[in-house]
Amino acid sequence: MREENLAQRYAQALWEAAKEANATERVAQDLATLDELLHAVPELLDFLAHPKLDLSQKEAVILALQEKFHPYTLNLLRLLLRRGRAFLLPELLRAYFQVLEKAGGPVLVLVRTARPLSQEDRDRIQRSLSQALGREVALEEEVAPELLAGAELVLSGRRLDASLRGRLLRLKRLLGG
Questions:
Q1: Where are the domains of the chain?
Q2: pTM of the model
Q3: pLDDT of residue 5
Q4: Which letter, b or e, does each residue of 80-114 get, where b requires 16 or more Cβ atoms within 10 Å of its Cβ?
């Protein structure tokens, strides 16, 4: 089974369980925190997904999050570790927010920029998008140096390119090159 489909199945199951317990927003907060943690410490995913490292060491890391995370989030993380599927986490996080969005939750927007956004820029973009869309927005940030400057937004399967690279490519096409 493809990783994307597997991640979607886990995300759907987590959302359904969280919905029954009226905890979809809490689990979403946990997953957003986990996403920030994975971006702040990229080695964490490598550690959790490494097949030769001891499971008890990996579970000890997850247990350190016990007081901060909902039991459903912790159970999902333990399940992924025990089945050797921690590598699915990035895709699973995206899939959960897509499920949440379809159910009327916040709209997931991927913001690609040449450099990391400051918290002030991130908040400004989030507010602007929330006002424009009329819904709450959950931002996922990705650094893409090839954009040179500006940003690229991906929401609901559509890409909006306001990067310098995109502008230069459009200009090149316009000039016939």
A1: 1-105, 106-177
A2: 0.64
A3: 85
A4: bbeeebbbbbbbbbbbbbbbbbeeebbbbbebbbb
